[in-house]
Amino acid sequence: MTASHTPLTIKAPVAQRSQLKAFAEKLKAVMESERTQATLTTPSGEKVVLPPTLLPLLAYAAEVLAGGEALTIVPAAEEVTTQRAAEMLNISRQYLVRLLESGEIPYRKTGAHRRVHIQDVLTYRKKRG
């Protein structure tokens, strides 16, 4: 079982959207170049090299936020309640329980409660179309 993390949900103010779009484009250019290194300069002037694995995440986040959408970041292994999973799929909790019981979506029980990995919910949502 993984440690529980509080999901981070953000939405960019309209005034920042063009800046975010430009940032996403710059990051994509860095990722497409042979030298895939980007740095962050802190307010004190210190330069910090961004790990290459972080660049696609930052570019994606900036692109989504630039489009005016909210973005929630949560670890893929995070578990949610059946109510939260049903909300993510836009279905009733009762219908979700039927999907769990039929084996359509994996789950585990903690006492009388069912828990579902977010990754499994997202996989089902993608499969469902």
Q: Concise description?
A:
The protein has helices spanning 17-32, 55-66, 82-89, 93-101, 118-128; strands spanning 8-10, 38-41, 47-50, 71-73, 79-81, 108-110, 113-117.
In what range is the share of β-strand residues? Answer: 15-25%
Biggest sheet descriptor: 3 strands, antiparallel
Principal-axes shape call: elongated
Count of beta strands: 7
Unreliable parts: none
The Rg value, from CA coordinates, equals 19 Å
Q: What is the overall pLDDT average?
A: 91
Order of helices and strands: EHEEHEEHHEEH
Class computed from helices, strands and strand pairing: alpha+beta
Helical content stands at 40-55%
Gap between N and C termini: 29 Å
> Into how many domains do the coordinates divide?
2
Primary descriptors:
129 residues, three-stranded antiparallel sheet, 2 domains, elongated, two-stranded antiparallel sheet, 5 helices, 43% helix, alpha+beta
Walk me through the topology.
Layout: E1 8-10, H1 17-32, E2 38-41, E3 47-50, H2 55-66, E4 71-73, E5 79-81, H3 82-89, H4 93-101, E6 108-110, E7 113-117, H5 118-128
Antiparallel strand pairs: 1-4, 2-3, 5-7, 6-7
Describe the structure.
About 10% of the residues are buried. The model has no long low-confidence stretch (mean pLDDT about 90). This protein starts with 7 loop residues before the first strand and ends with a helix. A three-stranded antiparallel beta sheet has the order 5-7-6. Strands 1-4 form a two-stranded antiparallel sheet. The chain folds into two domains: about 10-70, no CATH class; about 80-129. It contains five helices and seven strands; from the N terminus they run E-H-E-E-H-E-E-H-H-E-E-H. It has helices spanning about 15-30, 55-65, 80-90, 95-100, 120-129, and strands at about 10, 40, 45-50, 70-75, 80, 110, 115. With about 130 residues, it is an alpha+beta fold.
